Amino acid sequence: MTRSINGNILTPDGWVRGTLRYGAHIDAIDGAAADPASNGDDYILPGFIDVHVHGGAGRDMMEGGDAPHVIAALHAKHGTTSLLATTMTAPVEDIDRALAAIGQACAARGKGEARILGVHLEGPYINSGKLGAQPPYAREASLDEVKRFDAQAPMKLITVAPEIDGHMELVRVLADAGIRVQVGHTTGSYEVGVDALAHGAAGFTHLFNAMPGLHHRDPGMVGAALAHAEYAEIIPDLLHVHPGAIRTALRCIPKLFCVTDSTAAAGMPDGEYMLGRQVVHKCMGGVRLANGSLAGSTLTMDQALRNLVSIGLSIEDASRRVSTNAADYLGETLRGRLAPGCHADFVVLDRDLNIKAVHIEGEVL
C-alpha cells in the first residue's frame, strides 16, 4: 500500500517542499525546490543511523536475551532507524551470549524497532592502557575468533588498537574481508595511526576519547585522524567533546559522523545501570564509573541533531552527520538518504526539531 506525507523533504539534491510517497521503500518525491525558512512546514529527514549503541531503556547489549530488541525499540522512538549493536570488552563467554541474541535480532526486526544491521565489536582487541570504561579483559586479536564471532552475528565494524603485536596485519585482513576497522582505545602514536590507515583502517572510534591527544610536537592519534581521516565517529553530547573540538573535527574530517555510545541509562532516570560487567551511574547529565570517569552516554540521535544545530551547523549538514555519512561508511546505499528506491526510513520533525513521527522500512511508529 502506497502512502504519502507532505513537508520540507531533505533529498540528496537539497530541500523539496512537496510529497513523499512510500511503501516499504520510497516510491516518489514530488514537489519543488524550496527554502524551509520560507514556510512553517515540518522537516522530513533521512532516518538516523547509529553505529555505536551499547544500550538503552535500562538494558545492555551484553545481557543477551531480548535486550537487543528492547534497546532497538528505545532508539527507534528517538529517530534511529538502523544501528549497530555494540559489545564490550569481556570474557569470551559473555561476548558469545551477546552475539547469539544480536544475531537473532539482526535476522528479524520486531515491530517498532530500529533495524539492527550487525555488530560493532568494541573490544576485546584494544589496549589495556586505554580501557576508558571498558572492563579489564583486553587481549590480542585472533582471526579465527573473529570468524567465529561473525558466524554468530555479522561483524560490520571492529575497533582495534593497531599498536598491539599482530594487529596491524589483522587490520589489512579484516579490511580486505569487507569489515570496517576503526582505531580506538589506543595508545598509538601519530605514525601508528597513519600506518593503520594505510593498512585499511577506515575510521576512528569516538574521536578524542580513549586515544592520545593532539600536541604540536607530538600529534598523537588525534593528529593522525585530523590530518588524514575521511571518516571518524564522534559523540556530540557536548560532554565527551567540547563544541570547539567538534568544530575542529568538522573542518578536518570530511565525513565525520555522530554516534551516541549510549548505555542502558539512555531513556532512564538517574541511578545505577550495567555496562557489560561494570556498574555505571547516571548522574550530572552523563554516565560515569564510580571514580567519576565518563562511561558511555545517555545521548539519543534526535538530541545529537539538535546539539549540532545548537553549535552552528545547518539542518542539512547536521542531518548528514547523523545519517548519510554513516550509511556511506557502512556501504548502505539504500539508507541514509531520501530518494526513490531507498528504504522508507525517515523522521518527521517539527520546527523545533522535536520528533513527530518515525518511519522504519515503511512502518509508522
TrEMBL record:
Molecular function via GO: metal ion binding; N-acetylglucosamine-6-phosphate deacetylase activity
Q: Does the keyword Lipid biosynthesis apply?
A: no
The note describing how and how many cofactors are bound reads:
Binds 1 divalent metal cation per subunit.
Keywords, ordered alphabetically: Carbohydrate metabolism, Hydrolase, Metal-binding
Residue positions annotated to bind substrate are 133, 209-210, 217, 240, 294-296
| Biological-process GO terms, alphabetical | N-acetylglucosamine catabolic process
Q: Which SUPFAM superfamilies match?
A: Composite domain of metallo-dependent hydrolases (SSF51338), Metallo-dependent hydrolases (SSF51556)
Superkingdom field: Bacteria
Which positions bind Zn(2+)? 122, 185, 206
Q: What is this protein called?
A: N-acetylglucosamine-6-phosphate deacetylase
Per the UniProt record, the source organism is Massilia arenae
Gene it is expressed from: nagA
